[in-house]
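Sequence only, no structure available. Ideas?
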Amino acid sequence: MAEPLLSARGLTKRFRSGNQPVPVLRNLSLGLGRGESLALTGRSGSGKSTLLNILCGLEKPDAGRVQVLEDVFDSRNSGNDRRVEGRWAALRRQRIGVVFQDANLMPALSLLDNVRLRARLAGQGEDGCGDWLERLGIGELAGRYPDQVSGGQRQRAALAMVFAMRPALILADEPTGSLDRHTAEAVIQQLFDLQARHGCGLILATHDTELATRCSHHLDLGHLPEA
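Reply:
I predicted one. Tokens follow.
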């Protein structure tokens, strides 16, 4: 069995539409070991992005428990909210690489400096940061700023930022949604190569059922049983 990396138990999340609660996640549990990958599929609104946000501490579940490495977060005993948020922030800075649907780049920094900053915050060296941009096909754009490149190029720079931090866990929300098919395949191959090389975990939200079959495990949020 793979060494435990992440586990979630009994996750429940509701939003409100007017005065009515709208359940998104109902008593959901999952686990992931080092070197394993999990594909999240399901129609829009099935909770894929919400689940990823909970697993990296950007949203709080209404109920349930999340453990990432040695850190445990329980909705029943959140303690000091500021301290809990600080623990999550430290994990996202050093151990959890998050790739959002919209590239989260600092507009005042070049693409290369965005990657260098991410590596530095994670305690990694900056020497190979330009190499990640090269591998993702945008090395010649290293000196440009985010508003000087296309959306797909910004997304590849965001992936380079995650690769440069060498995380224990990668959470990716439709990471190739803005890329053409050929570029998307190259980027996904880099993602799986990184995982194989460093033994990190990967949770990937995708509408691509073919991509989902390449992961170790598959969870269809659109076909979960009612709690």
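Strands lie at 4-17, 20-33, 37-41, 63-68, 71-74, 96-99, 169-173, 201-205, 217-220.
Hope that gets you unstuck.
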